[in-house]
Amino acid sequence: MRFLLRLSGAIDALTERIGRAVVWLVLLVALLSAGNAVMRYGFSYSSNAYLEAQWYMFSLIFLLGGSYALKHNAHVRIDLIYGRFSRRTQAWIDVVGTVLFLLPMALGLIYLSWPWAMNSLSIREMSPDVGGLPRWPIKLLVPFSFGLLALQGLSELIKRIAFLTGALPHWSPEEEEEVV
């Protein structure tokens, strides 16, 4: 179990680094959006590349931010019932949800998006719009981001099982930072 907890800690550290980098994209996309608006309405200048850069950064925030949200328990959850259960019951719910829903969904989307992304890379797909950006880099991030989500799901699964088996003295979604 020690090895698995160290693996969980390494996955958490990777997710944390990527998540902290992605946070800066929020500022960058806001500045780019404001700049686009000023250029379009103030100077009658527009660029497809700037618009597509906005879309790509927005996509990156959501694609790469999913695993970070999972790590920090910031994902949407219907807490009407879950919050009333004991920590052990919550951990069991998380184990079942991760095994039956999260991991199969993430692995399925990796499987389905991989050929699509590889095809885009092989043809060096570009935007059909004049002055547009390459499409293949953002398409490659789809299977990559679901891979990160699957890894973080594995990390969360390890922590819940460690708690349930007594290898971790305590665990709760609110105390996630203190677990490993």
From TrEMBL:
<feature type="transmembrane region" description="Helical">
    <location>
        <begin position="21"/>
        <end position="41"/>
    </location>
</feature>
<dbReference type="InterPro" id="IPR055348">
    <property type="entry name" value="DctQ"/>
</dbReference>
<feature type="transmembrane region" description="Helical">
    <location>
        <begin position="136"/>
        <end position="154"/>
    </location>
</feature>
<comment type="similarity">
    <text>Belongs to the TRAP transporter small permease family.</text>
</comment>
<feature type="transmembrane region" description="Helical">
    <location>
        <begin position="91"/>
        <end position="116"/>
    </location>
</feature>
<keyword id="KW-0813">Transport</keyword>
<keyword id="KW-0472">Membrane</keyword>
<protein>
    <submittedName>
        <fullName>C4-dicarboxylate ABC transporter</fullName>
    </submittedName>
</protein>
<dbReference type="InterPro" id="IPR007387">
    <property type="entry name" value="TRAP_DctQ"/>
</dbReference>
<keyword id="KW-1003">Cell membrane</keyword>
<dbReference type="Pfam" id="PF04290">
    <property type="entry name" value="DctQ"/>
</dbReference>
<feature type="domain" description="Tripartite ATP-independent periplasmic transporters DctQ component">
    <location>
        <begin position="31"/>
        <end position="161"/>
    </location>
</feature>
<keyword id="KW-1133">Transmembrane helix</keyword>
<dbReference type="GO" id="GO:0005886">
    <property type="term" value="C:plasma membrane"/>
</dbReference>
<feature type="transmembrane region" description="Helical">
    <location>
        <begin position="53"/>
        <end position="70"/>
    </location>
</feature>
<keyword id="KW-0812">Transmembrane</keyword>
<keyword id="KW-0997">Cell inner membrane</keyword>
